[in-house]
Write a structure and sequence with these properties.
By secondary structure, the protein is mainly α. The protein starts with a helix and ends with a helix.
Length: 111
Amino acid sequence: MEYLDQAINTLRDGFGQVNHPQGLIIALIAALLMSAWRQLLPMALLATVVHLAVQDLPGILRGGGLPNFMVPEFWTTAGVYFLGYLIIIAVFFLLKSMVFRSSGGKAAKAH
C-alpha cells in the first residue's frame, strides 16, 4: 500500500508542477500536434524537454551553464514533469478528440 501511496503522490506532484500557465501552454500545443493516442508518450517526453529547456534557458544565457544532469534530483524533477505532462496532455487530447469527433459526426450525417 505504501508504494501505491507514493505513486499517487508522485502523480499529484507532477500534475501540480505542470499545472501552471507555462506548463498548460506546452501541454496544449503538444495535444494539438498529436494525431493519435500512440503519440502520447513521445509528446509527453518532448513537452518535458521543452519545459526543462525553457526553465533553464535564462540561467544558461546568463552564463550559468547547463544544469547538472548527474544528480538524482534533476532526473526526479524530470520524471515528475513527465508524469504531469502525461496526465494533462491526455486530458487535452481527449477533449480535442471529443470535440472533433462530435463536429465531424454531425457534418457526415448532414450530407
